[in-house]
């Protein structure tokens, strides 16, 4: 498992919203890039209401999933096209557990926090019909990461899973089916969760109780 590229914003480009610009245009960087609490040195966030912050510091996407999209869409999916900061190889990002911790290179440690939720900016970027719906149905959203240990990273760095929580809810499952029994075990495990995901899990469980 390794890091293929480290991507930061190339330039701000016009987006679909009244706010004007978006930082979704990420490009690979040479050498080593500093990773801090809020992400990569040199990167930007425009829509701070919906993006950025410690829990969404980095966005990782798998080369294998990008290759699948390339075949599905009949076009290249170059690194950074999806707005990802990290393009990985050999990492099952869809199968990563919420709360799983990775070491990247010799220094940086990150925690898997949440699946990426597609938005109108992503739709505008891709210019593909019904892109948000198609991306959701595909079930390989990539993962947002929280930085636990700062340092530098660069292309070619190894990625190692150094801990996994005691539950079964993966990035793909949180993005998709949201099985109540698995969500219950996740909540009972005491894993560190984002408030939004904890609230979602409680809503799913509440719906199940009301139907029962």
Automatic annotation (TrEMBL):
Coiled coil: none annotated. GO terms for molecular function: catalytic activity; molybdenum ion binding; pyridoxal phosphate binding. It comes from the Bacteria. Pfam families: MOSC. PANTHER family: PROTEIN YIIM (PTHR30212:SF2). Residues 27-162 form the MOSC domain. This is MOSC domain-containing protein. InterPro entries: Benzoxazolinone_Detox_Enz (IPR052353), MoCF_Sase_C (IPR005302), Pyrv_Knase-like_insert_dom_sf (IPR011037).
